[in-house]
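SUBJECT: protein chain
CONTENTS: sequence, structure tokens:
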Amino acid sequence: MNPDPHKEKRSRLALVGMSGSGKTFWSRKLAAAGWTAVSCDDLIEKRLAPRLAAGGYSGINGVAAWMGWPDSPTYAEREAEYLAEEISVVDEFLGVLEKENAASPIVLDTTGSVIYAQNNILMRLRRQMTVVHLASTEHEQQLLVQRYLHDPKPVLWRGTFHVKDNESPRETVARCYPLLIALRKKSYETLAHCSVPVAELRSLGAANEDASEPVEQFLKKIQAQAQHQ
């Protein structure tokens, strides 16, 4: 009998949060420290590759361009296609994880829209991994809005994008994106085993002579938060 049934989960992290909150940054840090890093964005992009190529798109920004603006005629259909591929990606990943006995360190870099996956998949994610929410303050949320405006990534708006008369596209995003963040916040908190404030992680990500130190501090913060759950 395993004396510590949670030991394996501690070496299996799933990072959740809005686009730009630091999921990919910390996944890469963990990868540099020897963890296996799996990117949902990369896997979804591969699945969409034939459809992207048909429109002359490629890369994660190409996925955003392929999906189009939220009020475009094809957006709802492509939003649904994207979510279907995301669900398949997470389902397949968990299927492999559920068959593995080894507790090799692995981190899953989810998308901001993972919370829209089917409930059974989210429950499996919680059973197999420690889900960590990278939580943003109100100030940081404004930075996420600006980042999206300058470098759009695929976003599932789920009906929160509403254009007003005489409003420019950028004005609509600036008004609606904070609403999307607020709606998702509760879902992230419900899914996650713990939340780590992004503000506390910024100093850890700075250059350091000992490359392993930021990762160690990051993991300590997760462990400290998880113990209080």
